[in-house]
From TrEMBL, chains A, B:
Signal peptide: none annotated. SUPFAM superfamilies: Ferritin-like (SSF47240). This is Bacterioferritin (Cytochrome b1). Residues 26-204 form the Ferritin-like domain. It comes from Quadrisphaera granulorum.
Amino acid sequence: MTPPRLSRSSDGADRGGARGETLQAEIDLLGALAYGELTGFLRLSAHADKAPTLEQTAEVGALAVEEFHHYQLLVERLRELGADPQGAMRPFVAAVDAYHERTTPNDWLEGLLKAYVGEGIATDFYREVAAFAPEPTRDLVVRLLDETSGAEFVVGAVLEATERDPRVAGRLALWGRRLVGEALSQAQRVAADRSSLTTLLVEGGGAGTDLVAIGKMFNRLTENHVRRMLRLGLTA
Amino acid sequence: MTPPRLSRSSDGADRGGARGETLQAEIDLLGALAYGELTGFLRLSAHADKAPTLEQTAEVGALAVEEFHHYQLLVERLRELGADPQGAMRPFVAAVDAYHERTTPNDWLEGLLKAYVGEGIATDFYREVAAFAPEPTRDLVVRLLDETSGAEFVVGAVLEATERDPRVAGRLALWGRRLVGEALSQAQRVAADRSSLTTLLVEGGGAGTDLVAIGKMFNRLTENHVRRMLRLGLTA
């Protein structure tokens, strides 16, 4: 399902109010993604430190490093737009930090599932966003998607753990529900607070249109999350 | 001052005992460096999480990511040599972990100084090692050196902090002494335990030759450390 495209010229010719609003929305978007990647890097590298083997330290470390590179690309794009990267990230600090505080993994497997679920939702969100964003931000986001190697090793680790002890599946299913719930709840909070961001995501319409479109996007993210949980042999 | 080169053919034609010993030494060397880089990545990213600003989080994060890339290159080389990377790192886990446990920074500045001092000593050590190692390990080590961006932003941060409060200089000078002391002490421990490693570093000679050569190398590392501390306006 293709989300509605924002009807705008991408050559920046429409200056003035509309252009200013779109620019702010673009900066918001990049700032939110950048802060998400930076904290993702910090959380994943902290989790890598708890790995049972050096090999797993390196696997999770590689995911962390990937997030840091995305952060660097997003900051570069913010600078190109003449924005201050720290200022652009600031409005999203509270929501992203709250997500991480409420989803601190209790053990190695919970951390792996968080990495997998988080990366999945982030990738889906990028994909949605890529369709709306003006160039060259759209290109950048697509590049980040192409580069994402995926936390595929998590699938094997989870299947192995639930095979060894089937009770683990119930606990991880609950954990997955909590992760997606917290992620969407914080995303809703951001969408409500930053109307500039939601205007980017929806084609201009009457009052309430954006909320409906955002709601539909969240539904798509949730559906994909359910599919990913099934791949792990977990109910969602 | 050029350290003595190991007199050996680099084409791998000298198989048998001598070749086996050199290969073990090369694996030891790569394993020690790899574990150092991997833990460096973990420690630096944990420190990045404590940064006072997001900009500093990113600066220290970039150092962490650099270490992870070095780790990946070293592991790749270990695999080329047919070695198991985890097995190659294992003998050095105790010494490296002990170094980090004994040098846990008490605050942001101590962590920055540790990054600066640690990277300085590691870079010097790489440089020494590059002269001894067979190809293509030598090339790899030189590449890592060229890629090292340096923790130069630390110089500004330390100078600024000591200008604001001159008492900080005394505390950081003591901390620098502790860092280099612990680093060399753990390196001595490794040199004593892993004779294969020290044979790589010295030209074949009578008993004791290697200890003398190692001692001289440590002196050079210490001299360079003193120079770096002076650049920070700190006594060493």
